[in-house]
Amino acid sequence: MNNAPINEAAYGKLLRKALPRPIRTEKDNERYLQVMEHLMDLGDRMTPEQRELLDLLVVLIERFEAERYSLSAASPVEALREFMEARGMKLAGLAALIGSKGVASEILSGKRGLSKTNIKRVAEHFGVSPEVFL
Question: What is the pTM (predicted TM-score) of this model?
C-alpha cells in the first residue's frame, strides 16, 4: 500500500487543506495530531495520498515532540504516562488501545512491562518510534 502511486492533484488538495509546516507551538501540534488521528481512523480506506500526508505529519510531530518532550532518560512507563497526560488520555483510553483494563493498570503501575504488540500499538497511536517504549 505504501508503494501505490500518488495522484499529485489529489495530494495537492490534501496539502492545501492541511497546510503542513514545521510545528512550533503546542496548538499546532494538537491540530496536526487531530488530522493524524482522523487519517488513522480511516484504516484500510486510506488513499495513497492520505497515507503520504500521514507519513509527513508523523515526521513533523515526532520532530516537535522530540525537541519539546525529551524522554531519553524516561523509562517506558514514564514515557507512556507523559504521552497519555499530554493527550488527556485516561486508563480507559489505554485499556481500549491495548484491549484490557487489567493489563493497562498493571503496565501503568509497573507490575507488567509492555509487550511487543502493545509497544507497536501505543507507538502508532502516539505517532512516535517504538524505541521510546523499549
Answer: 0.53
